[in-house]
Design a protein that fits this description.
Layout (H helix, E strand, L loop, with lengths): L1 H14 L5 H33 L15 E5 L3 H11 L5 E5 L2 H11 L3 E5 L7 H12 L4 E6 L4 H10 L3 E4 L4 H32 L10 H18 L3 E8 L2 H26 L6 E6 L2 E7 L3 H17 L2 E3 L2 E3 L3 E8 L7 H17 L5 E5 L6 E3 L5
Parallel strand pairs: 1-2, 1-3, 3-4, 4-5, 11-12
Antiparallel strand pairs: 6-8, 6-11, 7-8, 9-10, 12-13
Amino acid sequence: MPSALVAHIEYRKNLSGGLSTSKLQSYSAAHRRFRILRGILIRQILQVYGSALFRSPNPMSVLQTFVPRILIAEDSPVSRKLLETILAEKPYDLCFAKNGREALDVFAQFRPDIIVTDWVMPDVSGVELCRQVRKSQGPGTYIILVTQKSEKEDLIEGLDAGADDYLTKPFDAGELLARIRVGCRTVQMSREIEAKNVLLEKAARTDHLTGLPNRLAVEEFAAKQLSAAMRHRFSLWVIVADLDKFKLVNDSYGHFGGDETIKRFATILTANTRAADMCGRLGGDEFLIVMSHGNKKSIVQTIERLRADFAIDSCTVNGQAISATASFGIAGFDGTEATTLRELITNADHALYDAKASGRNLVRAHVRIPALSELVPTAKR
């Protein structure tokens, strides 16, 4: 991006005779290389994440009805009327401010996509308006600075203050509209990138087979919950679940049968997980559940119900009914003694190994207080 910005600024300087032809060609070539590299990067992103980027619901769908909101900050009634006349027939949502202070107040309510501002205004100048907008909102708003100043030092000051473009008075209506169209394309592209970043972030934290949070997401959630539990002294539980003899399922019914079994288990996990808690897939046939604000009895009852639901359920693949069971290990933090997420997961793993060794299709709890450590008896299936 810096290469494109340099090329853009230097090109503007050349309009007033600031660059030689050879230097202009050099900056133009650098700008073209940047656009080529950007295109390659976008294609690579689409190849890797294409299905995730355009899975419904799509936050990018709102961009199809993009109507730019434009704030005009101009203290001269004549200039303000001129700008209104030029833009009135265009598909823009317009708002006008008579000075810089009013523009800042309007900005907070109107949240414009583009600001066209005069440089010299009472109270707050156009340059100061740029600075304030950038402090409060960041780079999302495209700012065009209109000025009678043509010295390079002034233009540099305006760009450094946060302006994206500038227009020298008196200006041509066609040039103003062209620069606004550039601003619209820039804002829309920025929003598309933001929307894609949201989808990429979601894809990076989602297990593609089950749709559950992946290991990164669920362990991050667990770490935050544990930190809050130790700070506010409430209970937290982690439950490690593992499908019993899952290799046998794959060997008997193929990997499609194994996938359907994992998805069925994920569906039952989700149905038994509260909105304030989280369940996720660690990998393979292993899952993690994070639950808070519950006592031992309620947590065990919930996991026991989950175990029983999965044990009596089945799915059909190629006309064959597939049944499976799962074992669960529970580890808890009671809100008193400090612990770590690694320690909790390790304790839950030990409880899970105990459940497997005791015959599978069992729920075993392991907590820090010995009086709460116990095997939850269930009928072996």
